[in-house]
Amino acid sequence: AQSVTQPDIHITVSEGASLELRCNYSYGATPYLFWYVQSPGQGLQLLLKYFSGDTLVQGIKGFEAEFKRSQSSFNLRKPSVHWSDAAEYFCAVAATYNQGGKLIFGQGTELSVKP
Amino acid sequence: KAGVTQTPRYLIKTRGQQVTLSCSPISGHRSVSWYQQTPGQGLQFLFEYFSETQRNKGNFPGRFSGRQFSNSRSEMNVSTLELGDSALYLCASSLGLAGYSYEQYFGPGTRLTVT
């Protein structure tokens, strides 16, 4: 069955430090992968997506992610974290069914930023 | 271009009542999906509508239903509310069917509290 695993429930980094959030997926075909960010009380904002091609994708707010098929991973990175990056981050894979589809989300990683 | 809008933003209902939530997708988007977000279960797919037809349904009881209108606006209805239905309900729209190479854009959500 398709699934997404985010091993880290909560991560704390210092402002200015680098960040890597892990995501592993299980999907039989070529995956369409996404990272979303959610601030408290808000909806989900799309950070970046991978459909095909270059395995290193750039997103908004200085984020990037690397697709590694051999490791079934799609880790999110940022070279220097800002206090405003504190939020919850969700990795998702698009799953296709008979006549439609859906996003399957990981459990999320909550990011705290120390001053 | 205006984003996905959801109304109302907050709702408080009593057990046994029913509720209707509304979602207006981004102009030109034809697919609307609904997700339920709770601390325990995370983000779970409810259903997807495309061209006024339900294309895919998640593992939720029949008390959860929805529809889509010709202008792509969508409503979801929950009947006979239970305490466990308390959640953030998120609507997402995309140009094409979910599960394919179309990004889903999320609204701010409707926070439903059942007492």
List keywords for this structure.
heterodimer; A: 115 residues; mainly beta; six-stranded mixed beta sheet; four-stranded antiparallel beta sheet; 0% helix; B: 115 residues; seven-stranded mixed beta sheet; globular
Could you explain the architecture of this structure?
The complex is a heterodimer of chains A (115) and B (115). Chain A has 115 residues and is mainly β. Helix content of chain A is 0%, strand content 55%. Chain A contains no helices and 12 strands. Chain A has strands spanning 3-5, 10-14, 19-21, 24-26, 32-38, 44-50, 56-58, 64-68, 73-78, 87-96, 101-105, 109-114. In chain A, the strands form 3 sheets. In chain A, strands 2, 5, 6, 10, 11 and 12 form a 6-stranded mixed beta sheet that branches. Chain A is globular. Chain B is mostly beta strands and 115 residues long. In chain B, a hairpin with a 5-residue loop joins β7 and β8 (74-78). The mean pLDDT of chain B is 95. The interface between A and B is medium-sized, with 28 and 28 residues.
Q: Nutshell version of this structure?
A:
The complex is a heterodimer of chains A (115) and B (115). Chain A contains no helices and 12 strands.
